From TrEMBL:
This is Uncharacterized protein. InterPro entries: BolA, BolA-like_sf, Mt_Fe-S_assembly_factor. One of its GO terms (cellular component) is mitochondrial matrix. Pfam families: BolA. It comes from the Eukaryota. The lineage of its organism: Eukaryota, Fungi, Dikarya, Basidiomycota, Ustilaginomycotina. Belongs to the BolA/IbaG family.
Length: 114
């Protein structure tokens, strides 16, 4: 019983000492990576910029830092007069070298009409 009380009090002390302004799970929602995924993310950004010259591009690792699932939002004139399936195929073709290492992809393509 003494062990339980000491253990609970040490948990309470750690909880009070911990800063709650930065939760532990924050890494899941950031685009920073842990083990070299920056290379994948940077390569995706470079390939998409070269191919589509987007007016807006957002590439985010949403896999919790392991680089297996990316969310991409790209706005480009290249998607004008294209159906969604066609524009998604264009993006998939552009990143095919990196795509084989990715397990999931959330993709949003927007036609820039300006």
């Amino acid at each position: 019983m003494y062990f339980r009380l000491a253990w609970r009090s040490s948990l309470a002390a750690r909880a009070q000492a911990q800063s709650w302004s930065h939760p532990v799970y924050a890494r899941m929602f950031t685009s920073s990576s842990v083990r070299g995924e920056e290379d994948k993310q940077e390569k995706i950004i470079r390939l998409l910029r070269e191919k589509f010259e987007p007016s807006d591009l957002q590439v985010q690792d949403v896999s919790g830092g392991c680089g297996s699932f990316f969310a991409i939002m790209i706005k480009s004139k290249a998607f004008a007069d294209k159906r969604t399936v066609q524009s998604h195929r264009m993006v998939n073709q552009a990143i095919k070298d990196v795509f084989q290492d990715i397990h999931g992809l959330q993709l949003k393509t927007i036609a820039d009409k300006d």
